[in-house]
C-alpha cells in the first residue's frame, strides 16, 4: 500500500459531511457512518483490553485476530456493496467462544461489569459491540447490507461476554455477581 495519508486534514468535512469508501458523500450523522464509527470504537475498546496487564496469550491472539476482522467489517460498512466479512469469520468466533466457554462453570447468576481491569475493559467492549450490532441492524432497515455483518457482531458480543468471565477468573478478582437478594421487601412493621 502506498502513502495514502499524506495530509491528515482536508477541510472537506467542515460542512458536516464525510466521504465513504466509494467516493460518495453522506452526512456525518448518517446510519452508515454511525455503524462503522461504532465498529471503530469497538476496535479501540478491544485495544484497551489488550493493553491491560496479565491478558493470557491465547486471549490476546484471539482478540488481535478480531481487531483485524473488525477493521475489515468497518471497511465493508464504509463501502456500500463491499463484502469483507464472511461465514468463515463467524465460524472462527464460534470456535473460539466454545473453546473458552467449555471449561467455565455454568452461569447461575447475572454478572456485573468488573472483575479486574482487563475484565472491566472487556465488559466495555461487549456493550459497545451490542451498540454496534443495533446500529448495523438499523442501517439494514434503510440500506442493503449483508447479513454477515450483524451475525458477526452478535457472535462477537457473546465471545466478549465469555472472555469477561475468563479474564475475571484469571485476574484473581473473580466474577462480580449481581446480588438480587439485596433488595428485600420491607416488613409490615418497618413502616411504623
TrEMBL record:
Record pathway: Cofactor biosynthesis; adenosylcobalamin biosynthesis; adenosylcobalamin from cob(II)yrinate a,c-diamide: step 2/7
The organism's place on the tree of life at top rank: Bacteria
Family designation: Belongs to the Cob(I)alamin adenosyltransferase family.
Broad class of enzyme this protein falls into: transferase
Organism: Dyella thiooxydans
Keywords per UniProt: ATP-binding, Cobalamin biosynthesis, Nucleotide-binding, Transferase
BP term (GO), one: cobalamin biosynthetic process
Subunit field text: Homotrimer.
Protein name according to UniProt: Corrinoid adenosyltransferase
Sequence segments annotated as region (Disordered): 1-24
PANTHER family, sorted: CORRINOID ADENOSYLTRANSFERASE, CORRINOID ADENOSYLTRANSFERASE MMAB
Amino acid at each position: 500500500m502506498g502513502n495514502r495519508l499524506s495530509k491528515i486534514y482536508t477541510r472537506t468535512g467542515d460542512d458536516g459531511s464525510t466521504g465513504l469508501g466509494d467516493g460518495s458523500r453522506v452526512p456525518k450523522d448518517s446510519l452508515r457512518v454511525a455503524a462503522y464509527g461504532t465498529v471503530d470504537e469497538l476496535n479501540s475498546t478491544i485495544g484497551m483490553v489488550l493493553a491491560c496487564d496479565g491478558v493470557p496469550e491465547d486471549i490476546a491472539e484471539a482478540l488481535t485476530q478480531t481487531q483485524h476482522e473488525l477493521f475489515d467489517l468497518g471497511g465493508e460498512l464504509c463501502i456500500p456493496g463491499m463484502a469483507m466479512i464472511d461465514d468463515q469469520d463467524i465460524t472462527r468466533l464460534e470456535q473460539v467462544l466454545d473453546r473458552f466457554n467449555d471449561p467455565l462453570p455454568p452461569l447461575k447468576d447475572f454478572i456485573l461489569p468488573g472483575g479486574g481491569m482487563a475484565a472491566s475493559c472487556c465488559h466495555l467492549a461487549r456493550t459497545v459491540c451490542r451498540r454496534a450490532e443495533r446500529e448495523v441492524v438499523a442501517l439494514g432497515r434503510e440500506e442493503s447490507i449483508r447479513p454477515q455483518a450483524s451475525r458477526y457482531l452478535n457472535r462477537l458480543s457473546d465471545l466478549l461476554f465469555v472472555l469477561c468471565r475468563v479474564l475475571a477468573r484469571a485476574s484473581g478478582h473473580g466474577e462480580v455477581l449481581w446480588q438480587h437478594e439485596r433488595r428485600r421487601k420491607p416488613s409490615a412493621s418497618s413502616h411504623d
